[in-house]
Amino acid sequence: MRVGIVGGTGEIGEGMAMRLSWIMDVCVGSRDPGKAQETCDTCLISAKERGIDCSVRSGNNQDVVRESDVIILAIPFKHLKSTVEGISGWEGKIVISPVNPMERRECFVYTPPAEGSAALFLQNILPKTTRICTAFNNIAGNRWRDISSELEYSVPVCGDDAEAKQIVMDLVNQISSLKAYDAGPLSSSHIVESITPLLLNIARFNKMKDVGIRFV
Ligand SMILES: NC(=O)c1ccc[n+]([C@@H]2O[C@H](COP(=O)([O-])OP(=O)(O)OC[C@H]3O[C@@H](n4cnc5c(N)ncnc54)[C@H](OP(=O)(O)O)[C@@H]3O)[C@@H](O)[C@H]2O)c1
């Protein structure tokens, strides 16, 4: 199984690329393949330092979708529509949305689109056969990139396709110490997405850093 990361050069994308490329085949995507290659080089160096294998290749975002079975959309909400509509070949693919629509006002505020969540927005713009799941919404980019630390977080996963959801949960459970939890249908994604502005407000008002969630 190959996992592709559209926007794999970004704040969460790069850390995801590193940690995933140590355990499975990864394709890092960007609008600029040269930038994607830089992220691949970072993955290869991180693996070499740890003395472990690494399987990573670069491409543009279209290459990532064509060559991958599971695609993570590591893109800000405001660029989601143009990015998704500029790429073909989504049919039958498993698509993971870590996307949280939000704004920073006097504090962080969840600002979902009319559909109710980024995940349901995606469902409207992707072909009907695309198997969308929500996951990885509540882990800070800094934590992904801090590769010397374990990720000891819970990861709620939403989706309507039972087989795709199981594949995504199995994927989550292979990364560091992450633990996946079934968080219901795709229509529940707004609950998961809206946790992130809460985490950011807690971090800000309590002078904490990179707050995450763990269900016990
Ligand atoms: N940052 C976090 O801590 C965090 C935590 C949980 C969830 N998330 C969610 O994860 C997603 C990615 O967040 P991020 O912070 O990683 O984002 P980011 O670093 O701001 O951007 C990610 C990538 O998006 C691409 N991009 C930027 N502008 C674009 C445009 N105009 N059109 C198309 N692509 C563009 C860039 O890739 P190229 O320039 O290489 O094309 C960039 O590297 C967001 O939806 C966010 O809500 C973030």
Please tell me about this protein's structure.
With 216 residues, the protein is an alpha/beta fold. It has a single domain, classed as Rossmann fold. Helices cover 38% and strands 20% of the residues. The protein is built from eight helices and ten strands. It has an eight-stranded mixed sheet, sandwiched between helices. The chain is globular. The structure holds NADP nicotinamide-adenine-dinucleotide phosphate (NAP). The site of NADP nicotinamide-adenine-dinucleotide phosphate has 25 residues, from helix 4.
Keywords:
P5C_Rdtase_cat_N, two-stranded antiparallel ribbon, globular, coenzyme F420 binding, single chain, 216 residues, alpha/beta, 8 helices, ferric-chelate reductase (NADPH) activity, NAD(P)-bd_dom_sf, binds NADP nicotinamide-adenine-dinucleotide phosphate, Rossmann fold, cupric reductase (NADH) activity
Name the average pLDDT: 98
Radius of gyration: 16 Å
**How are strands sequenced across the largest beta sheet?**
3-2-1-4-5-8-9-10
Fraction in helix: 25-40%
- Which superfamily, in CATH terms, is the homologous superfamily? NAD(P)-binding Rossmann-like Domain
**Total tally of structural domains:** 1
**What is the succession of H and E elements?**
EHEHEHEHEEEHEHEHEH
CATH class: Alpha Beta
GO cellular component, one term: plasma membrane
GO molecular function: coenzyme F420 binding; cupric reductase (NADH) activity; ferric-chelate reductase (NADPH) activity; NADP binding; oxidoreductase activity, acting on NAD(P)H
InterPro entries: NAD(P)-bd_dom_sf, NpdG, P5C_Rdtase_cat_N, STEAP_metalloreductase
Organism: Methanospirillum hungatei JF-1 (strain ATCC 27890 / DSM 864 / NBRC 100397 / JF-1)
